[in-house]
Structure formats: structure tokens, C-alpha cells
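Try it yourself: sequence plus protoporphyrin IX containing FE, in.
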Amino acid sequence: MLDYLTFTNLALFAIALLLFYIWLTPKYKNLPPGPMGVPFLGCLPFMETLAERTFTKWSKKYGPIITVQLGDHRTVILNSYEAIEEAFIKKGEKFNGRFKTYFTEFASEGLGMVFIDGEKWKEHRKFGTRALAGAGMYGKTIEQRVLEEAENICHVIRSKNEEPFILEVYMLESSCALANVINGITIRERCDEEGNENLLKLCHVKIENIKAINNFPNRFRYNYFAHHTRMSQVIIIAALFDNLIEQHQQQHDRLHPRDLIDLYLNQMKDFSVSQLYFKITIYKKTTKDLFAAGTETSSSTIRWALFYLIVNPDIQDKVHKEIDDVIETGHNGVVRYDTKLPYTKAVLQETYRIRTATPLGVPRRNTEDVTLMGYFIPKNTQIIPNLWWVHNDPEYWNEPDVFKPERHLDEEGNLIMSNRVIPFSIGARHCLGENLARTEIFLFLVSILQKFTVLPNPEDPNPPLECSPGIVNSPHKYPLIMKER
Ligand code: HEM
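Structure, out:
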């Protein structure tokens, strides 16, 4: 007779076999191929630190679209420009959802701008596009705001007296440049003004949160962790926004909206008090999302560009020469976004390519069953575009690891905007802040290079060029030197 222990062991073994069999049996026919993985964890244990490289390795074996099980998330990786174009442009309507995970729900509570979808997303996208374009907003243009902040940055840089310092553009000591640009648009407030200590604290907490996510060893494992800073953040935000909204309601003038809150209040005239409260809750999330999406991404791109100019002094010389010829001589020192600086713009285009700020974009979700490149993708699959590989595929980019701005110029020196440089992704759900980001990154960089030469730190002459594993690919901290020209 079997004793009790043997019977239990056999039963457990049979259950394990059954689970293994269920796991092995494909639930859908004709899914894109991909690696097997292991029960429960799927492919997570086999991911290297930079997930985009692992996906690329698998893609070379299985093809341009692959299925990868990440924990309990069925995921399809789009590993070529053609696959991303077919999904996000040609079949965009079906791929405009956002994939929901414990982390996204936790971070967004189903509200805001980045993680919502359906009709709610369409309504907010329209509103956000109008607001970021400055439509109907009185006061300064986006360009004026950015140039003002760029001027502040230059003051702070000058105060470093050509000593090594760590440039973190969004939090550059007293000048919170990028945070001020986005906060100026959404809540008409600067972080570094007296009385705004809570806003400054909030910006710090938010940025620390982004960094905390970035510090996880692999950007897919962050899904399973919560942020310890969340409670303090919630309390600060609640108090800050209640105060701000009350002030805006008191001073509200329909015909002269000054910022995103005023635009929002304009839209809310017909709502009941409870609807108003609900809308304001959504609004707070929207403002937070814009802040989170719009600071570390742009800041990292500016820092990558400066690092590449340090290691390529000949390229920096050409940028300086172009700025001197065009702006100093032709435009009395005044730069605008449309100023013709093709070489400098090519340097930026190359930075977007070689150090893609969000190498795997922001995961999408297909809202219906769909066929893509001949494969079946069941509704509600996580869809990840490998933007990094589009930017580094040697079939299209000769020596992709080499920083060569010239590859973005034609024979007459005009800028070529290749559709294979897509840091902001593509389709109806591409980055909402693309124009703002392009404007601020260009104007900050030109304003700095107009006045300074960026030099390596003599004690450590090689700026770190390794990519980081976070959602945002931020450069490591490096003390550089800025010398007045
Ligand atoms: C270098 C700078 C930036 C890069 C590389 C970048 C990249 C991206 C990418 C790849 C996405 C995902 C798009 C998709 O799903 O197809 C995205 C979404 C988004 N970005 Fe950016 N971004 C940058 C700066 C900004 C700025 C300055 C803002 C604005 C304040 C912003 C606001 C957003 C928002 C709101 C979304 C979500 C859009 C939606 O779901 O409809 N981003 N960004």
C-alpha cells in the first residue's frame, strides 16, 4: 500500500506534469514564433540587462515579430520598422490601446494620459495636443518659455567657474529648467520661486520615482514592485493641486486661459459638482503624466548629446562654427526653432538614433484580434516596438555604433529626416510631447553651445557612454566642464 507521503508526492508530481502539459499546449494557432521560456516566469529568467538586445538576439533566430512570454504577460515584440509601421500606422486603430499591468494601474489608477485608452484616451489626446501646442493660451509661446529657461541654465553653468560639475538639466541646482517648461504650460508655476517649495519637493519625488524604476536590474521586472515614495507623493500632490485649482477657479476668465488648468476649467462649465471633482482628479493625473513623460526623456537626450560632443571634439568644433556663422553673424545671436542649423540638427538626429531615450517605447495593447505580417495576435496582447533596433540595424545603418552626424545630411549639407529614426514612435498614439521635446532639446543645446565649449573632466576624461536598463535610457552621472567661449 502506498503510504501517505508517497501518495502526496505522486499527486504533486502529476499536478506539475499536468501544468507543464497545459503550458506546452499552444492556446492559439499561428502566433508569431519565439523562445519557449519556463512555466510561470516565461522568458524573464533569460533576459539580459538591456532587454532590447535580448529581443534582437531572439528576433535574429525567429523573425521580425516574435512572441515572448514575460511572466504572465503574452508579449509580441515588433523588431523591424516594417512591423512597427504595419501595426501602428496601417492597423493603428487596433493597436492604440495601452497594456495594463499591476505597475501601470498602480501608477495611474486608470487615469491620466499615458495609460488610459478607448474613448477616454481620444478625448484627452485631443485636449493634450491643443494644450501643448499652446492653442488658446495667453502669455508666452513655448519657444519663449524654453529660451528663458535656457538663459537660466547658462547663468548656473557660468557660476560653476569652469570647475567639473554634474549636469542634470531638469534639476540644475536652482534652475529646474525642463520641469519649469512643462509646469509653466500646465500650471503656470516655476519650481524655483518662493512659496513653491512643495512643487519643488514634488518634482524631486517624481524624478526620484523615475530613477527608482530605472534602477531595477531589468525594465520588465519593475512591474512587480511598488514605489516606497508613493504615499508622500500622493499627499503632496493632493494638497498642491487642491490649492492650485481653487486659485484658478477664483481667478478664472474664460476668454483668457493662461495654462492647462484654465483650459480644463473652460471645458468643465457644464459639469455637475461630482463630475467636476472626477474631472479634476483626472486632470491631476494628466498633469503628473506630462511631467513624468516630459522631463527625464528630454534631459537624458541633452546629456547624451553633450557626452558625444566631448568624445568627438571635431564634431563639436563644426557645431560651434555653424552656430557662429548662422546665429551670431546672421541672426544677431538670437536662435529660434526654425533657425537653419542643419549640421547641429544632424548631431541631434544622430543622438536620438544612437542613444534612443525610450528603447522599447511605451508598451501598447491590441484591442481586437488581428493579423500582423501573416501571424495571428490575440486581443489584449502586450505589444512592444523595439525602437532601439530600428535605430541600430546594420542593414540600414553603416557602423551603427559610431556617432556620425553626416549620415543625416545630403551632398549639399541639407538635413535628411529618415523615417527610420523614430525615437517618439509613430502612429496616432506616438509621443504627445514630440514637438515640445524637439523644441526644448534643440534650443537648450544650441543656447549652451553658443556660449560654452563642453570639455571632459581631466581626472576622468571618458564620459560614460553605456546605456542604462531603465524605461528611460539615461546616461550615468559624469562631472563635465563647461568653458566660456
Ligand atoms: C526625448 C524626449 C522624448 C521621447 C524620446 C519620448 C518618447 C515617447 C514614446 C516612445 C512614447 C510612446 C508612444 C507610443 O506608444 O507609440 C511617448 C509617449 C508619450 N509622451 Fe513622450 N517622449 C519624449 C518627451 C516627451 C515630452 C516633453 C512630453 C510632454 C510633456 C511627452 C509626453 C508624452 C505623453 C503624454 C505620451 C503618451 C501619449 C499617449 O499615450 O497618447 N513626451 N513618448
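One thing you can check immediately is this: The pocket of protoporphyrin IX containing FE is lined by residues 113-114, 125, 182, 289-290, 293-294, 297-298, 301, 357-358, 361-362, 364, 423-425, 429-433, 436-437 (CB under 6 Å).
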